[in-house]
Specification:
The chain is α+β, with helices and mostly antiparallel strands and 164 residues long. Helices cover 44% and strands 11% of the residues. The chain has 2 domains: 68 residues, Arc Repressor Mutant, subunit A (Orthogonal Bundle); 77 residues, Glutaredoxin (3-Layer(aba) Sandwich). A 4-stranded mixed sheet has the order 2-1-3-4, with helices on one face.
């Protein structure tokens, strides 16, 4: 019987990698890479995932959740197949990103970070995507939309097969 299948819900290859991190000096410094590995595999970090990372790295659960909640690139629920990222940095905010964000939520009938019923879309924000001259900016599947207005939202969604 394997220790990994008995104690953890994480895949065995992930458990082994995190156990390797624990065996190194300053294993707590591997917390972000460990969380990235888990999120890459599962698409998000559940409470169970966070608990198992804490146990595998011998790091307090509060520290794991603190780090995971501090960095915006960690998700705590599954994202949609197409994650719509709206920049809300200063330049985008000043140029109307909030209204664009709200229009996406309205069109899809979801709350922030909540996937649509079919699991196809979710909407989230980013503090800054480094494209201030193109503000407001929307990113979907590495495609960057520049100077987005709320009225552009239906056409952007149609690019990914959405129709109301």
């Amino acid at each position: 019987m394997s220790c990994c299948s008995e104690e953890y819900t994480l895949k065995e290859k992930i458990v082994e990698k995190l156990q390797d991190f624990r065996g190194r000096d300053r294993s707590d410094s591997y917390l972000i890479p460990a969380l990235q590995i888990v999120q890459e595999e599962y698409g998000y970090l559940s409470r169970q995932h966070l608990d198992e990372v804490a146990r595998l790295l011998s790091v307090p659960y509060a520290r794991v959740t603190g780090v995971a909640s501090f960095y915006q690139f960690f998700n705590f629920q599954p994202a949609g197949e197409y994650e719509i990222i709206i920049c809300t940095g200063t330049a985008c905010h000043v140029r109307g990103a909030g209204a664009v964000f709200d229009r996406f939520l309205e069109e899809l009938g979801v709350e922030p970070e909540e996937p649509t019923e079919d699991g196809k879309f979710s909407v989230t924000d980013a503090r800054c995507v480094g494209a201030c001259s193109k503000a407001p900016v929307v990113i979907i599947e590495e495609k960057v939309y520049s100077h987005v207005a709320p009225d552009d939202v239906p056409d952007i969604l149609a690019d990914f097969g959405y129709s109301p």
